[in-house]
C-alpha cells in the first residue's frame, strides 16, 4: 500500500508499463501486447482539404497538398439549407442553416467543407444552365424518430 501520492504514482507507472508492454492481450490477434498493436497501427489520413487558417485566400491558392482550386468562397447556409455559388443553388443540409461553410471548385467538381476542413458534400460541377443541385436527400419534413430502430 502506498504511503504518499508520489509512491502511488510510482506504483501506477510500473503497472502501466507491465500492462501495456509485457502482458499479452487476449483480445488481440496473436495475443500481442497493447503497445505492439498500437505501434503496428497506421496513422489515419487527415480530412481533405486541409483546413486553411484564413478561408478567404486568393483564387487558385492550394488548399490541399498538390491541389489547386480554380475558385473558392465562403457562404452562410440559408435557412432551408442552401447556398448560392455562381448563380447555382446547392442544397447542403437544413441542420447547417446559419453556419458558415467554404466551397472550392476546379474544372470538374465542387466541394463544400465545414470550418474544420471536413467535406460536407461533393458534386460534379453542374452543366451550364443548371440552377439547382440537390444533395440526394428527399425534400420535406423528416418523420419523427420513434426510438424503435437501432
Task: Describe the protein in words.
The protein has 150 residues and is an alpha+beta fold. The protein folds into two domains: 5-39; 62-133, Roll (SH3 type barrels). 16% of the residues lie in helices and 25% in strands. It contains two helices and nine strands; from the N terminus they run ααβββββββββ. It has helices at residues 5-21, 34-40; strands at 62-64, 67-68, 71-76, 82-85, 88-91, 100-105, 109-113, 119-124, 132-133. The strands form three sheets. Strands 3-6-7-8 form a four-stranded antiparallel sheet, with no helix packed on it. A hairpin with a 3-residue loop joins strand 6 (100-105) and strand 7. The protein is elongated. It starts with a helix and ends in a 17-residue tail after the last strand. 11% of the residues are buried. Mean pLDDT is 79; it is low at 53-62 and 145-150.
Could you list some keywords that capture this structure?
three-stranded mixed β-sheet, four-stranded antiparallel β-sheet, alpha+beta, 150 residues, SH3 type barrels, 2 domains, disordered C terminus, elongated, 16% helix
Outline, from the CA principal axes?
elongated
- Uncertain stretches of 5 or more adjacent residues: 53-62, 145-150
How is the largest sheet built, in terms of strand order? 3-6-7-8
Text of the CATH class of the largest domain: Mainly Beta
Report strand %: 25-35%
Please, what is the average pLDDT?
A: 79
Span from first to last CA?
46 Å
Cα gyration radius (Å): 25 Å
CATH architecture level-2 label of the largest domain: Roll
When the domains are counted, the total is 2
The main sheet comes to: 4 strands, antiparallel
Helix content: 10-25%
Quick one: how many beta strands?
9
Helix count equals 2
Fold-level CATH name of the largest domain: SH3 type barrels
Oligomer: single chain
List the secondary-structure elements in sequence, H or E.
HHEEEEEEEEE
Amino acid at each position: 500500500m502506498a504511503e504518499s501520492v508520489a509512491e502511488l504514482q510510482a506504483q501506477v507507472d510500473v503497472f502501466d508499463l507491465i500492462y501495456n508492454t509485457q502482458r499479452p492481450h487476449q483480445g488481440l490477434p496473436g495475443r500481442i501486447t497493447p503497445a505492439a498493436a498500437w505501434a503496428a497501427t497506421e496513422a489515419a489520413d487527415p480530412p481533405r482539404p486541409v483546413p486553411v487558417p484564413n478561408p478567404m485566400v486568393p483564387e487558385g491558392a492550394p488548399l490541399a497538398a498538390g491541389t489547386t482550386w480554380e475558385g473558392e468562397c465562403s457562404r452562410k447556409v440559408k435557412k432551408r439549407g442552401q447556398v448560392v455559388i455562381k448563380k447555382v443553388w446547392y442544397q447542403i443540409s437544413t441542420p447547417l442553416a446559419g453556419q458558415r461553410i467554404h466551397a472550392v471548385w476546379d474544372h470538374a467538381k465542387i466541394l463544400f467543407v465545414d470550418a474544420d476542413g471536413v467535406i460536407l458534400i461533393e458534386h460534379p460541377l453542374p452543366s451550364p444552365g443548371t440552377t439547382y443541385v440537390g444533395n440526394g436527400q428527399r425534400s420535406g419534413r423528416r418523420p419523427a424518430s420513434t426510438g424503435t430502430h437501432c
